[in-house]
Write a structure and sequence with these properties.
The chain is mostly beta strands. It has one helix and 18 strands.
């Protein structure tokens, strides 16, 4: 049994939870005056986009599903006035904590904000955003934790059993992690992990007992959508996604009311794998391997 579960998890070769931390990082200004609030939303009905921002379908020979997002972490938010604005030269309004505790500079996961779907992620002083007209947003995600469906076979007890597992994925440029928790297992890392570190946990009901199974690994295959990549590219491995605001945001510098921007991310078939059994079911025990797990577009709008 243990060997079969181990093989199942080896099949989940992914690319790229700790306790909830709902306080802002040290880099977040103390709220005073009108606020600029960012909400997060994961929506499987949004367009499924490729790296260049074009609509793409699931390739022949692959299959995909809409993962159920549980928690996510954002490290960087930047407004850009137009498609020629280079990464880092726009208006950076939020950046999470970083550390060199693991050697090279990395996201400090211990201080990261983890929030669920349809929640307000962070608020900053509206005065942080200079006067101007903004049409684009750049957002760096560093962590995703979601549930996914998979099929498990281990006769005679399990025949085409459709089960659920939880995946923790670290997609930041570099991540310093002491420990993190998925379902009920805490994993000690105490090191830097580059983009692509993941951990997967599942429990298989057997004879009235839940046998938890856990594994970790490194991988590749993260779609990072950037519709303006030809004029404003992002570095490989940064996981900085780019999205155009539904309507330009005009800031005069004289605002007296709060503004909320919703960061809507597409989860439309964002968990994709190579099929062995052509049935649309993810079956890692059959040798089906994950080829992509990146979010499929950023569609920000002012609420």
């Amino acid at each position: 049994m243990r060997q079969l579960i181990f093989l199942l998890l080896i099949g989940a070769c992914l690319s790229a939870c700790k306790k909830d931390n709902t306080t802002t990082s040290a880099a977040t200004p103390t709220p005073t005056g009108p606020q600029l609030t960012f909400g997060i939303k994961f929506d499987s009905t949004l367009a499924r986009l490729g790296n260049l921002g074009q609509p793409v379908s699931v390739p022949v020979g692959n299959a995909a599903q809409n993962p159920v997002m549980k928690k996510a972490s954002i490290h960087y938010i930047e407004f850009a006035s137009d498609s020629l604005t280079a990464l880092g030269s726009g208006a950076i309004v939020y950046q999470g904590a970083e550390t060199t505790a693991g050697g090279s500079n990395a996201v400090d996961f211990d201080k990261a904000i983890l929030k669920g779907n349809n929640t307000d992620y962070v608020s900053v002083n509206l005065s942080t955003l200079p006067a101007g007209t903004y049409t684009w947003l750049r957002v760096s995600l560093t962590y995703q934790m979601f549930d996914l469906a998979y099929r498990f076979n281990n006769p005679p007890n399990f025949v085409n059993a459709d089960l659920t597992g939880s995946l923790a994925s670290f997609v930041g440029f570099n991540n310093y992690i002491t420990t993190h928790k998925i379902i009920d297992s805490t994993i000690a890392v105490n090191a830097n992990k580059v983009q692509g570190y993941w951990a997967f946990e599942t429990s298989v009901p057997f004879g009235g007992t839940n046998y938890g199974s856990l594994t970790t690994g490194e991988g590749a295959g993260v779609t990072v959508v950037n519709p303006i990549s030809t004029t404003s590219p992002v570095p490989a491995g940064s996981c900085v996604v780019t999205g155009k605001l539904a309507s330009p945001l005009v800031i005069t510098g004289n605002e007296t009311s709060d503004i909320k921007v919703v960061l809507a991310f597409s989860t439309n078939n964002s968990f994709e794998w190579k099929e062995v059994n052509v049935d649309g079911k993810y079956e890692p025990g059959a040798g089906e391997t994950v080829v992509d797990m990146g979010l499929r577009g950023l569609h920000p709008y002012v609420e």
